[in-house]
Amino acid sequence: MLGYGNLIDAATLGGGSWVGTLPLSNLKARALGKVARTTNLTFANTLFTVDHGVSKPVRIVGLVNHSMQLSAQFRVVGGSDPGFSTGVLYDSGWLDVWPAVYTTLSLEWPSTNFWGGRYTDAERIGVTPTRGLILPNTVSARYWRVELKDAANSDGFIQIGRVFMGAAWQSQVNALYGATSIAWETTTEIQAAISGAEYFDRRTPFRVARFSTEYMSETEGMSYAFEIQRQMGVDGEVFYVHDPDDVSHALRRQFLGRLRELSPVEYPYVGLLKTAWEVKELL
Questions:
Q1: Most-buried pick from 88, 93, 210, 216 (CB within 10 A)?
Q2: In the chain, where are the structural domains located?
Q3: Which three-class secondary structure string do you get for 166-210?
Q4: How far apart (Å, rounded) are the C-alpha atoms in residues 16 and 29?
């Protein structure tokens, strides 16, 4: 699944309580380091609302570069009423920001995360914290509210670098096996001394997903694959989801990115189209 057309930039944001120098409007900044920060952890202050002006289709909501801790939870509500007292069209209920990524069978008994299966604090280092929510179906709603609970956060606040909220496309025929991969890449610089000793200027690794969608009908290939490439280019944001039904590895295989290159839509068979994709994670 590929999310595209981030609606957050054109929306009106409100609610909660945010530091004056790190306002809620920072969620519209493409630079993930330009964060919005709550003034404290009081529940009434750790939420925000989104008004699209008119009903717009949403399938994916993503919280990117957030500072929430392992015990944090969040909730997403969408509807036609700005107060959400009536006209609720979607309610995710309370969900873990950091769901389990290990089974008990994959962990040693003394492990501190044996029962919960979540990342440890040490394991989270070097990862751009991203929590994607894949709605069961596309929901067209004008108003949305995102609620956050992280009372145990030792920072005394919650901050988020970017929000993705947009439509998504999932090809009718699965991505091609053998042509699908996800990898870590890095721009870390390595210099070798005359002695052979190596010195490193470490850069944060980023994920790259490559896949191919084949056996698309002409309608699907032109109306979605071709149009998404035109609209997003190599600079627009997309949200990569390896498998919408994945639970155990969702944190590993979902990320905010961009198309690294635009690939031709090919005609390998009569009435069927194919194209290749390469999505680079944004840091």
A1: 216
A2: 2-169, 181-281
A3: EEEECCCCCCCCCCCEEEEECCCEEEECCCCCEEEECCCCEEEEE
A4: 18
Count other C-beta atoms under 10 Å from residue 266's C-beta: 14
What's the average pLDDT block by block, 10 residues per block, for the chain (283 residues)? 97 98 97 97 97 98 96 96 94 92 59 60 77 97 98 96 97 91 95 96 95 96 97 98 89 95 95 96 96
Joined tokens for residue 181: 């991969």
- Residue in the block written with tokens 């590993």: 252
**Domain 181-281 classification at class level:** mainly beta
Rg (CA), the chain: 20
pTM: 0.91
Half-sphere exposure of 2 (CA within 13 A, CB side): 30
Specify the 3-state DSSP secondary structure of 104: helix
Helices (H), the chain: 218-220, 227-232
Name the β-bridge partners of 184. 207
For residue 250, the model assigns a pLDDT of 87
The CATH code of the domain at 2-169 is: 2.60.120.260
Q: How far apart are CA 248 and CA 242, in angstroms?
A: 12
Residue 196's contacts (CB-CB under 8 Å, 6 or more residues apart) are: none
